[in-house]
Design a protein that fits this description.
This protein is α/β, with parallel strands linked by helices. It has a single domain (7-223), classed as Bira Bifunctional Protein, Domain 2 (BirA Bifunctional Protein, domain 2). Helix content is 27%, strand content 28%. The protein has helices at residues 17-33, 64-70, 106-123, 193-197, 203-218; strands at 6-15, 39-45, 48-51, 73-76, 83-86, 90-96, 137-139, 148-158, 161-169, 189-190, 221-224. β8 (148-158) and β9 (161-169) form a beta hairpin. It is globular. It starts with 5 loop residues before the first strand and ends in an 11-residue tail after the last strand.
């Protein structure tokens, strides 16, 4: 087996959702076979609504014609959770980690993802919290209104190797979330780093902070990964 004291960081740029799935599958097979080290895949997706394993069709609030007119694809996903939106201006993270080398506890893993996101957002001066009984990260209620979801999480585990992961809203099109019931939560507000700060941070800056938080929370080192078959650009 390959050593587990580091995780490869792979940044393929902007991909369609099927391209991202293909890349994840390559990584999962490599980690399961012991032929690749663990990896953290960070990318942006072309506009897409994805349906998790727990998705209800009525949580997509518009028809196929309207989605096509807006240039938004629709895909089913093997991750957990309900309906969500991915698009440019959002950092999507797909950790491919072998939990058998770590803690075989899916709930602990999800809490670690939340902590990574909380630390990242707080480094930018935005307070972030968990909410009891829910998965994801929120900006707490304040004078601006109720709590607002800034990051979503939906994971899959196969033979203790993780895939799928999280989406952090940096400067994503928040209007697109009006087309769905995000994560199946009716009446929930969605926000972004740009909206909370009143300015658009460079996505590269947010990505760097995210990588640093990941290293701290998961007690590992990130190192540049090799080009993976199916990726559009080398890392």
């Amino acid at each position: 087996m390959l050593p587990a004291d580091f995780v490869e960081i792979i940044r393929p740029g902007r991909l369609s959702y099927p391209e991202g799935l293909t890349l994840q599958e390559e990584l999962v097979r490599g980690v399961q076979s012991g032929l690749r080290p663990e990896a953290l895949l960070l990318l942006e997706h072309e506009a897409v609504i994805t349906l998790g394993r727990g998705a209800r069709p009525e949580h997509v609030l518009c028809g196929a014609a309207e989605l096509a007119a807006r240039g938004i694809a629709l895909h089913e996903s093997a991750r957990g959770g309900d309906v969500t939106y991915h698009g440019p201006g959002q950092i999507v993270g797909y950790p491919v980690l072998d939990l058998s080398r770590r803690q075989r506890d899916l709930h602990a893993y999800i809490r670690m993802l939340e902590e990574t996101l909380i630390q990242t957002v707080q480094e930018l001066g935005i307070r972030a919290i968990r909410r009891s009984g829910m998965t994801g990260v929120w900006v707490p209620a304040d004078g601006e209104g109720p709590s607002r979801k800034i990051a979503a999480i939906g994971v899959r585990v196969q033979r203790w190797v993780t895939s799928h992961g999280f989406a952090l809203n940096v400067d994503v099109d928040l209007e697109a979330f009006r087309l769905i019931v995000p994560c199946g939560l009716h009446g929930e507000a969605v926000t972004s780093i740009a909206r909370e700060k009143g300015q658009v941070p460079p996505i590269e800056e947010v990505q760097t902070l995210l990588e640093q938080s990941f290293e701290e929370v998961f007690q590992t080192r990130l190192r540049p990964g090799d080009t993976v078959p199916g990726s559009r650009n080398p890392p």
